[in-house]
Specification:
Elements: H1 2-13, E1 18-22, E2 28-32, E3 39-43, H2 49-54, H3 56-66, E4 69-71, H4 76-88, H5 94-104, H6 115-126, H7 130-134, H8 155-170, E5 177-181, H9 187-196, E6 199-204, H10 207-219, E7 226-230, E8 240-246, H11 257-267, E9 268-281, H12 290-295, H13 305-314, E10 318-325, H14 328-342, H15 344-350, H16 353-372, E11 375-383
Parallel strand pairs: 1-3, 5-6, 5-8, 6-7, 8-9
Antiparallel strand pairs: 1-2, 3-4, 9-11, 10-11
Helix pairs in contact: 3-16, 4-16, 11-13, 14-16
Length: 398
């Protein structure tokens, strides 16, 4: 029964490209158009057939991790690109609605990220072996979307450009105080202190990140200019001239959005400015990939711009600038995946083959989402006073 149902689903889904599927009973079926390049997969375990139909997002990821789904030449990129492009071409089809339904299930978007849960969520991902991140990130360990001025920029160039692009939006003056919410491995805070002569407090819930960041600040001779603390953004931290948050808003939780921006408002000085850099969706509010939520980012959620704006409005703050970065994260992830692949043998020694398959799937699926399927990056600039910043965007080009 489940083979027949899956067959009907794939007949309706695959209109672009060709997908060859070998079922557990040995039957081979071609779906879609006959092209020079086709993607061939083999379902090695009949027990996943029902789950492929009921919860495709979670099951495909798990099947790839566990070897229950074999892909010819291990072309996971080609397979996910084919599926995603066909879903994108049929946004109102029953198949797309089925995927949306499963992604909205399992309480995906209603759990609040309370402080006690936030720390365990962070630990799940960011307290992995520091060597892992060294093997695929840039030298500054920027684990967020880079900013490519040219398609042939190196990853290091693009990450440096990202930090300075954000710094311009903060409109910094020497001696200002800056709060970095979700400070990662310290690169943003150190850059701001070093090149813009400001005083920065970076906060994180990751013990590994806090330890490494503090060591970096000492080695740079910036102990008096930048400090890193293991703290939640909701704690009493004082008042700051500027607030920056890069790649952290995705972990706030929808029920906390209004409180998040209220916290920013309360922590900003009267002429304060904040810049929030986050992954976003171009669709209305929805759910989270069950696979990503289970294996990569528990507690994570990708916001719609409408959700962010509504929360800002409730706090009577000015949205002074919004920029949408469209292909930059796809390019960033492509660099990460290349570096991960080059160092996979070393990563296997830290973890194992299944971990490598999980992370390879995560990096490729994420790139595909930004390249073909409804994901972008928002940079939202916020101020407490409408006259704090210049009235044109020329200052960003200087």
């Amino acid at each position: 029964m489940w083979i027949r149902l899956l067959d009907k689903l794939l007949v309706q889904l695959v209109k672009k490209g060709q997908l060859m599927v070998q079922y557990p009973n040995g039957r081979i079926v071609a779906y879609g158009q006959s092209l020079d390049k086709k993607i061939s997969v083999k379902i090695n375990n009949s027990r996943i057939l029902r789950r492929l139909f009921v919860n495709p997002d979670l099951t495909i990821g798990e099947a790839y991790m566990n070897g229950d789904l074999g892909i010819e030449n291990d072309d996971i990129y080609g397979f996910l690109a084919l599926i995603t492009q066909n879903l994108t071409n049929q946004p109102d089809s029953w198949i797309s609605k089925l995927l949306l339904f499963t992604n909205n299930s399992f309480l995906n978007s209603i759990k609040a990220n309370v402080p006690s849960r936030s720390k365990s969520n962070v630990k799940h991902h960011y307290d992995l072996s520091p060597e892992l991140y060294t093997l695929f990130l840039d030298v500054d360990k920027q684990y967020s979307c880079a900013y490519f001025k040219n398609v042939d920029d190196t990853l290091e160039q693009a990450q440096e450009q990202k930090k300075h692009h954000i710094a311009k939006k903060l409109s910094l003056q020497p001696g200002m105080t800056v709060l970095d919410i979700g400070s990662g491995w310290g690169g943003m805070a150190i850059t701001l202190a070093k090149y813009y002569n400001v005083n920065v407090l970076g906060i994180t819930l990751s013990e590994e990140q806090q330890k490494i960041s503090q060591q970096r600040a000492i080695s740079e001779g910036l102990e008096g200019k930048v400090e890193f603390k293991l703290m939640d953004y909701r704690e009493d931290l004082g008042v700051f001239d500027r607030i920056v948050s890069v790649g952290m808003f995705e972990h706030v939780g929808v029920p906390n959005y209004a409180d998040y921006f209220r916290t920013i408002k309360n922590k900003l000085s009267p002429g304060g400015v904040a810049l929030v850099h986050t992954i976003g969706r171009i669709t209305p509010p929805g759910g989270t990939s069950p696979w990503i939520k289970k294996y990569i980012f528990p507690g994570g959620y990708i916001p719609a711009l409408s959700e962010m704006v509504a929360a800002v409005e409730k706090n009577y703050l000015y949205i002074s600038d919004v920029e949408v970065l469209r292909m930059h994260y796809a390019m960033t992830l492509n660099h990460w995946h290349q570096r991960f692949t080059e160092n996979e043998e070393r990563i296997k020694k830290i973890y194992d083959e299944r971990f490598c398959r999980m992370w390879r799937y995560y990096l490729v699926a994420s790139e595909i989402s930004f390249r073909y399927y409804q994901q972008v990056v928002f940079q939202v600039q916020i101020s407490k006073d409408q006259m704090t910043l210049p009235i044109t965007r020329d200052y960003l080009l200087e």
